UniProtKB/TrEMBL annotation:
Pfam families: AHSA1. This is SRPBCC domain-containing protein. It comes from the Bacteria. SUPFAM superfamilies: Bet v1-like (SSF55961). Signal peptide: none annotated. Gene3D superfamilies: 3.30.530.20. It comes from Mucilaginibacter pallidiroseus. InterPro entries: ASHA1/2-like_C, START-like_dom_sf. Residues 13-140 form the Activator of Hsp90 ATPase homologue 1/2-like C-terminal domain. Belongs to the AHA1 family. The lineage of its organism: Bacteria, Pseudomonadati, Bacteroidota, Sphingobacteriia, Sphingobacteriales.
Amino acid sequence: MNGLSLKTEVTFNATAAQVWRGLTDPAMVKDYFFGTNLKSDWRVGSPITFSGEWDGTSYEDKGIIKEIEPEKYLSYTYWSSMSGTEETPENYATISYDLDAKDGVTVLTITQDNIKDEAAKQHSEQNWQMLMDAMKKLIELPS
């Protein structure tokens, strides 16, 4: 693997359990992630897939769960069928979610590696922020 990596943080006015559910519940993911179908049994070594249709093109992004500690940490490999790359080990990234909760507030730190260039890094950072903003609207209680 080569390329760049990113780290972005999002603060939720929600418990770790609520944020975890937002990341792992297929119905919630479908709601904020453009109709994406998420499938996994959430066990180390098991597949994780994200599938759907974007701009009239079907996609199936995939990976393998590397580490999981419910409501605290999740790491998986990731390859996108829309990335324009072959599905080979060197084209997979690793994505991780680290949840740090205190007093009803959860800070989610997202990391992603193996990003091909600065433009792709900026695109990924914008996508993460957009997705997490959409997830916030689903899980945060009105203040």
